[in-house]
């Protein structure tokens, strides 16, 4: 089995290495941006990306998800640093949070991923896609006031996703815009079936970055109004010596171990990071063309180990991230090798080639992310959801709006709440409903019970029975029922033996078992045939 897995990884290197390079290019500015947004050192985001790629990539079970610092935890990080008074005390919370996540995995908490409805997951993905588009259009136009990695509707620069678009249109940089357009054209060109063999070797996103750097450095450099300057490029910290590089690392302040606030923030980080990771993994599994299923408990343990190591050496909290995972998928990544390779590249970039990476225009990366956003929120997804009926599309739309205007966790929570309401409503409506006004005395009323009659059907069945008029004939058909909840059985028994005779209703049953044994309280309710 191990040999087979190794052979699979080797055979897919031609896909995974180029995909890992694309993910690295996308992740690099995001890591730096999230560090800046969190008020943390630049290197803390890079380190979290390295550990998320290499450590979690090696230990985790997901083949396509990519982990790193997440925008969803920025507010928590800012609050923790301010409350605890130092970055080192904050690192202790990340270190402890990792062990809490490991405990989550050992106690099988990953099972909650199975309870996220598909309409909410699809809504979350489409919402993230829309956010990516809203946030990347300004970068594509050369308006880089908002930092990379900021996914919140209310931006750090005082604007929001909508006003940021308006400001971008008012401050268009022609050079950056041309680079973004060229990048998008290159990506679309590489999706042409005729270039299938080339795109296997060089993903469209990678070609778009090469094209952007070439156009800017070779063609635009001598034209002032077209050349994209340093403030519109990737900005990797450049260490001047080994000593300066080693100074990038920070370590937890273990003297704060008895501080209750440390444990409160650790639990908060563990909970938020775990939920975000499970949501991302569930979403990416649904997009995986090979239909692989991730062991979520093992993934939580891997995430926990990654966070403990990140906290130990000065990194930000880590989660599985939709943006990077989607970029990996779109770049034709096949196995976790692409994730691991992207982490190695992040580390190598800071050590070996920071100056070279600082030539990449943000507009070129915006082209990749705009394409990724479109893939997540393309119109065909909306059309399919609307075809599935309102029980599917309403929670889907609510989730999208909440994710875009609030944040991922709040959006999913609201979408999940709406979905639960519709499940309850659907269970109520799907039971037999008798309209008293449309029946006359003497009519035979047939009540067909579903295959599984749960407590959720209790209210609708009681209402149905109470609406049956006097002097009617009633046929209760349980031929298809494999399970009937104890509460429902009691309602049926009460109607057949007490209420029906009082109202002179003749009641007959079909397919009803002599008795249904109920696990709770070891009670048995018998229904007379």
TrEMBL record:
Q: Which UniProt keywords apply?
A: Membrane, Transmembrane, Transmembrane helix
Q: InterPro entries attached here?
A: SLC26A/SulP_dom, SLC26A/SulP_fam, STAS_dom
Q: Which residue ranges run through the membrane? A: 15-36, 42-59, 119-137, 172-190, 202-220, 262-284, 305-323, 343-372, 393-425
Q: Which residues form the STAS domain?
A: 434-497
> What's its membrane topology?
Multi-pass membrane protein
Report the subcellular localization: Membrane
PANTHER family from the UniProt entry = SULFATE TRANSPORTER
* Stated name of the protein: SulP family inorganic anion transporter
């Amino acid at each position: 089995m191990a040999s087979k897995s190794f052979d699979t990884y080797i055979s897919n290197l031609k896909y995974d290495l180029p995909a890992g390079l694309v993910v690295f290019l996308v992740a690099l500015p995001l890591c730096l941006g999230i560090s800046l947004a969190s008020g943390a050192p630049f290197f803390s985001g890079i380190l979290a990306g390295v550990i998320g790629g290499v450590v979690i990539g090696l230990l985790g079970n997901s083949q396509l998800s990519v982990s790193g610092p997440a925008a969803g935890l920025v507010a928590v990080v800012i609050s923790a640093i301010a409350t605890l008074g130092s970055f080192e005390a904050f690192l202790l919370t990340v270190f402890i949070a990792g062990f809490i996540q490991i405990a989550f995995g050992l106690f099988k908490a990953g099972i909650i991923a199975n309870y996220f409805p598909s309409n909410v997951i699809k809504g979350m993905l489409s919402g993230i896609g829309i956010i990516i588009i809203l946030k990347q259009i300004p970068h594509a136009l050369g308006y880089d006031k908002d930092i990379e990695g900021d996914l919140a509707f209310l931006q750090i620069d005082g604007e929001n996703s909508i006003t940021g678009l308006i400001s971008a249109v008012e401050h268009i940089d022609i050079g950056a815009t041309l680079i973004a357009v060229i990048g998008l054209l290159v990506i679309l060109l590489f999706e042409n079936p005729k270039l299938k063999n080339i795109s296997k070797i060089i993903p469209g996103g990678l070609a778009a970055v090469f094209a952007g750097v070439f156009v800017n450095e070779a063609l635009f450099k001598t034209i002032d109004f077209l050349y994209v300057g340093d403030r519109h490029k990737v900005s990797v910290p450049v260490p001047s010596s080994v000593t300066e590089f080693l100074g990038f690392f920070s370590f937890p302040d273990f003297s704060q171990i008895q501080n209750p606030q440390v444990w409160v923030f650790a639990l908060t980080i563990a909970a938020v990071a775990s939920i975000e990771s499970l949501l991302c993994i569930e979403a990416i599994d649904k997009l995986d063309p090979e239909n692989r299923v991730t062991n979520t408990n093992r993934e939580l343990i891997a995430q926990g180990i990654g966070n403990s190591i990140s906290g130990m050496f000065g990194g930000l909290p880590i989660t599985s991230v939709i943006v990077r995972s989607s970029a990996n998928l779109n770049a034709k990544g096949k196995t976790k090798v692409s994730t691991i390779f992207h982490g190695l590249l992040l580390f190598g970039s800071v050590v070996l080639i920071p100056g070279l990476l600082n030539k990449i225009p943000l507009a070129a990366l915006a082209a990749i992310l705009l394409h990724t956003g479109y893939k997540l929120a393309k119109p065909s997804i909306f059309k399919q959801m609307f075809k599935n009926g309102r029980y599917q599309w309403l929670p889907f739309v609510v989730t999208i709006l909440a994710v875009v205007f609030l944040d991922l966790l709040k959006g999913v929570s609201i979408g999940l709440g709406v979905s639960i309401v519709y499940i309850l409503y659907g269970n109520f409506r799907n039971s037999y409903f008798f309209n008293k006004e449309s029946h006359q005395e003497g009519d035979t009323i047939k009540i067909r019970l579903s295959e599984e009659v749960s407590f959720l059907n209790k209210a609708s069945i009681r209402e149905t029975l109470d609406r049956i008029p006097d002097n009617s004939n009633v046929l209760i058909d349980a031929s298809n029922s494999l399970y009937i909840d104890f509460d429902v059985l009691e309602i049926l028994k009460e109607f057949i033996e007490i209420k029906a005779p009082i109202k002179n209703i003749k009641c007959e049953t079909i397919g009803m078992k002599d008795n249904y044994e109920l696990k709770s309280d070891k009670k048995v309710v018998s229904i007379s045939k």
